[in-house]
Amino acid sequence: MTPDGPRLTGDGLTLAYGRRTIADELTVAIPDRSFTVIVGPNACGKSTLLRALSRTLKPAAGTVLLDGQDIARLPAKRVARTLGLLPQSAIAPDGITVGELVGRGRYPHQGLLRQWSPNDERVVRDSMAATGVAELADRMVDELSGGQRQRVWIAMALAQETPLLLLDEPTTFLDIAHQIEILDLCARLHEEEGRTLVAVLHDLNQAARYATHLIAMRGGRVLAAGAPGEIVTAELVREVFQLPCRVIEDPESGTPLVVPAARQAVKRPAPAGADTEGAGRP
C-alpha cells in the first residue's frame, strides 16, 4: 500500500473502443478498505471504467496506478494476487465442473514450487459455501441457471483471495433474495476482512444502502463521489438519471432511499356522445 494515497487510482484516463471514446480525462480514486459502488445510466462508462481499473482494457491515455505503480507494467501474477475481477459476461470453458471452475481462482497462488495444497482446498470449499453453491460442486457449469452460474463466478473471485475485488454487476440474473445475499456477503468481506470492493450496480437504492463510497457517472464523467448520505440528493438523481424523485431516509438502514415521483394521471377522453356537462343529472 502506498503511504500517501489509495492503492487503486485512475489518473487522466481516456477510455475508448476503437475510435469511439467513452470517457476523456477521467480521474478516480478508490478509498482503501471501502465498499465503493459505481452507478449511472446505461452506457455512461461504468463497466468501461471497471475494465480499465482491472487492466482488462488499456487506456488510450492516462494511467491506472496499483500501489503507486503503473498497473500495465506489473507482472500478471502480481496483479492477480492483488486484484480480482468478476467480469460482466464471464464464459466458462466447455465441460468444466463448478468445483474445477472455482478452483481456478487459486491459479495466482500456484507456482513451480507451490502446487495444490490443503489450504487451497479449504479456500475453495469456503468460497463455495459462502455463495451457496457447495452442493453444485460436481455439476457442469453449462447445466446451471443464470443465477447459479453468477454465484459460481463470484465464488471463483472469492477463491482468488485478493485484497481488492472488482465486481461488474454481481447481482445480474439473481432474484431479489439472492441479490441481498450477495450484497450482504460483499459487506462482510469489506467489514470483517478489510477487503476493498468496487462494484457496478444498477439499483441505486441497493448502492446507497451498501456502499461506503459512491461514484455517480454520466456521459463518461464523474458527477459526484463520496459517502451516499452526503451526495445522494434529488438534484443529483435528476442530473444523473433524468429522474424526478424524492430522497427520504430508508426506515431499515437509515441510508438514502430514492422514491420516484408519482406518475401523472392520464385523462381519458369521454366516450363519443357522452353529455359530460350533464353527467349524473336526470
Keywords:
single chain; 9 helices; 6-stranded mixed sheet; 282 residues; 25% strand; 4-stranded antiparallel sheet; disordered C terminus; 30% helix; alpha/beta; Rossmann fold
Number of helices: 9
Proportion of strand residues: 15-25%
Low-pLDDT segments, ≥5 res: 277-282
Radius of gyration: 23 Å
Write the CATH homologous superfamily of the domain at 8-92 and 161-260.
P-loop containing nucleotide triphosphate hydrolases
Structural class category: alpha/beta
Query: For the report, how would you describe the main beta sheet?
Result: 6 strands, mixed
Average predicted confidence as pLDDT = 89
What does this structure look like?
The chain is an alpha/beta fold. It has a domain at 8-92 and 161-260: P-loop containing nucleotide triphosphate hydrolases (Rossmann fold, 3-Layer(aba) Sandwich). Helix content is 30%, strand content 25%. The protein is built from nine helices and twelve strands. A six-stranded mixed β-sheet has the order 6-7-8-3-9-10, sandwiched between helices. It has a four-stranded antiparallel β-sheet with strand order 2-1-4-5, covered by helices on one side. A two-stranded antiparallel sheet has the order 11-12.
Describe what is shown at a glance.
The protein is built from 9 helices and 12 strands.
